[in-house]
Design brief:
This is DUF4846 domain-containing protein. Residues 37-106 are annotated as: Disordered. By secondary structure, the chain is an alpha+beta fold. The protein has 9 helices and 19 strands. β17 and β18 (368-369) form a beta hairpin. α6 runs antiparallel to α8 (265-278). The relative contact order is 0.18.
Length: 379
């Protein structure tokens, strides 16, 4: 009888411990807000359309593993090391067209890697499709009657115009490897040669942050920070010092968690995953400035905050004399997947918009009202 009583007591204690652990996990996830989701009415339902899944941070937490203090287990073993001084600014000169020729896919030129830093990061060497050409080389001609807009050298827009692309025929893959969009999908124009990451993190708003942050890194900027959905800043410097964002009650705070790390690109890439864990479409919209559609330029983006929400990046712009604009658009989505260039139809790559249009119509999402057009301050 006594033995059975002890067994019952142990069972009750174990059950209570499990409930506490579950409560801690649910509390950690409660602070996160959806960053983007699949369209409620995709134009092509079926296997070729993006697969709807759970909300961004919750699914990301499950993929990365959230500890009891809401820290992604993905970063539990950050590389130790002394804090290094910021690297000198890299040249953002346009890479020569030969740098990304198909014959050179096994090695990236130093000049190209300086402009697109992930290409020169050994820790990401096998994580992204190899680059074969650039956005400008792949899509050299806007629609008849349109001319590409002039861009300041070294600007975010000029950098996007020369984004490295994977080979034609590359599908859009999810972070876990499955195909989301086959190469012949009617709305897929190209895949950007950049890694997705190992967890379900780099989704729609995250991909825009990723590209903007990589551009800033390439020009030598190390004073980097993006905003969490909870409202706090997520600066790179605090990550380097070994601090991590942690949920305490209903607040997100920074706490020391590990030793300092070098200010190198692998540390930067790990910090970005930390940003993706806590950022969302609402934070992205608040961190950028509204832009009039008449002023739309490469580097701008449309974002609809919400649960669900979505965001799409403008990677190039051409204009016609009648005021119309032709846009090249790129996005990631849910689940985390290759950043890819969209096309409106099988017969077109550029999205043509008129000054009279009330919204930007894209595949896989409801129209974006122009009031949600945004631009980063550093652009």
């Amino acid at each position: 009888m006594r033995s059975r009583g002890l067994l019952a007591l142990r069972f009750l204690l174990a059950a209570r411990s499990s409930r506490l652990a579950l409560g801690s996990l649910l509390g950690s996830l409660a602070l996160c807000v959806t960053a983007c989701d699949a369209s409620p009415s995709p134009p092509e339902p079926g296997p070729s359309s993006p697969t709807p899944i759970a909300a961004h941070p919750a699914s990301s937490a499950a993929a990365a593993g959230i500890t009891s203090d809401a820290r992604p287990a993905l970063h539990a073993a950050d590389p130790p090391g002394p804090e290094h001084a910021a690297a000198p600014a890299a040249s953002l000169a346009t890479p020569p067209s030969s740098a990304l020729a198909p014959a050179a896919t096994s090695a990236t030129s130093a000049e190209t890697a300086a402009s697109y830093p992930w290409l020169g990061d050994p820790s990401l060497a096998a994580a992204a499709p190899p680059p074969v050409d650039t956005l400008l080389a792949r899509f050299p001609s806007p629609p008849p009657g349109f001319t590409r807009v002039d861009l300041a050298g070294g600007s975010f827009g000029a950098w996007l115009r020369h984004l490295p692309l994977a080979a034609p025929g590359t599908p859009v893959l999810r972070h876990s490897g499955g195909v989301i969009l086959p190469p012949d999908h009617r709305n897929l124009a190209a895949v950007v040669a950049i890694d997705i990451g190992q967890a379900d993190l780099q989704q729609c708003a995250d991909a825009i942050i990723r590209l903007h942050a990589e551009w800033r890194w390439a020009r030598g900027d190390r004073d980097l920070s993006y905003r969490a959905g909870a409202g706090i800043e997520l600066p790179f410097d605090r990550w380097v010092r070994g601090e991590r964002p942690v949920q305490r009650g209903e607040a997100l705070v920074w706490e020391p968690k590990t030793r300092s790390s070098p200010k190198d690109h692998p540390t930067f890439r790990g910090w970005l995953d930390g940003v993706f864990m806590w950022a969302n479409t609402g934070a992205l919209a608040q961190q950028a400035q509204p832009v009039a559609v008449e002023q739309i330029a490469p580097g701008d983006f449309v974002v609809q905050p919400g649960t669900p929400g979505h965001a799409v990046l403008v990677v190039d712009v051409a204009r016609a004399s009648d005021g119309r604009a032709a846009l090249l658009l790129a996005q990631s989505f849910m689940p985390a997947q290759n950043v890819h260039v969209l096309r409106p139809s099988v017969d077109a790559t550029w999205f043509v918009v008129s000054p009279d249009d009330q919204a930007l119509v894209t595949p896989f999402w409801k129209p974006f009202p122009w009031r949600w057009l945004r631009r980063f301050e550093q652009g």
